[in-house]
Amino acid sequence: MIAYAAAVLLSLVSGQAQPSQDGPIATANRAESGESERTREALAYARDLPPGAPREDYPLVAWCEALVSGHVAAGESLSNPDELDREIMRLGRLEAADFRAALTAAETRATPAQKTAAAAAAAEARAKWAPVLANEDEAARSQVFGLFYGLPGRCEHAARRVRGNVTTPPATLSDVGLDETGAPST
Which residues pair with 184 in a beta bridge? Predict the structure, then answer.
């Protein structure tokens, strides 16, 4: 019995098994490969951005941060958020903090034009949330909070590139062996 308990404890500590839990379960035992990240980045940059989204990385990160922060603010305006709402807000705060950290890391490298574009993009994104947050109808705010589907995939890659001062162009689909649909090239 003690040997069994020790084996279970050892497997938990070594990461080979995880206790029963609600939510995501980690199945990978190492970080994402550089090639996998490059492929995801190529896919993200190949997709169109929503109308009004900045095309350059630095202002895009500011735009993404403002959208996520607005979504969190909409959730925080609810008087009785459920557990899922609270988890979505927690994750949103983490994502917004990551975007802010990327902007802070790049602030000394950003040109005045980039900073101006970022401020304008963030203001435009915040303006989208203003009518929602001003709405006194909590049911309407709750509905909008529930309908926010998330950000373009390019946001996370732009933040990584801005944070790391990556100045080379992102890989294209053909660079990573994919066709224009994202399927492997033949």
Answer: 178
Render pLDDT for 118-136 as a digit per residue (tens, 0 to 9): 999 999 999 999 999 999 9
Contact (Cβ atoms closer than 8 angstroms) between residue 46 and residue 172:
yes
Rg (CA), the chain: 20
| Domain encompassing residue 53 | 36-166
User: How far is residue 44's CA from residue 65's CA, in Å, rounded to a whole number?
Assistant: 17
How far apart are the C-alpha atoms of 87 and 69, rounded to whole Å?
14
- In the chain, how many domains are there? 1
Residue 50, domain member (yes or no): yes
Residue 44 lies in a domain: yes
What pTM was estimated for this model as a whole?
Answer: 0.80
Strand ranges inside the chain, DSSP E? none
Distance CA 77, CA 173 (A): 41
Structural domain includes residue 24: no
Please report, for residues 7, 13, 121, the alpha-carbon distance to residue 161 in angstroms, rounded to integers and kept in the order given. Answer: 42, 34, 18
Residue 184 lies in a domain: no
